[in-house]
Write the structure tokens for this entry.
Amino acid sequence: MLNKAYFESRSEILKWINSTLKVEVANIEQLGSGSIYCHLLDAAYPSKVPLQKVKWSAQMEVDFISNFKVLQSCFEHLGIARNIDIQRLVRAKYQDNLEFAQWMKGELGPKIAINTKYNPFQRRNWVKIDLSFAIKGKEQRNNK
């Protein structure tokens, strides 16, 4: 049976991410850097994700891959049996990232809801997350 999170809309997913992490993710494609997924996992399992390894201002695919490898390593360490198709997610395509974000909400949402003392600013050392790569990419595609 499918989790009800798979039927949540883009706007519901973004609202959940933004309220949980106190960020301003405007579109699903911005999740392609992997940093937000790492942060969500940290919200569900505080101090289990080495956030100092996350590249918060990733702009290039090589940095996105690095973030997803951090995520994948944490999944293995935590015993989360979920394949992460890194090559698809780092392309920052809407559908791939929406499906993964829906899965994250379905699996991690209940754990995150329990952890009311989670401070996302403090956990990322007050670093501002730069997700401009997705907007730049969209502008470049629209100008062609």
In short: The domain at 28-142 is CATH 1.10.418.10 (Actin-binding Protein, T-fimbrin; domain 1).
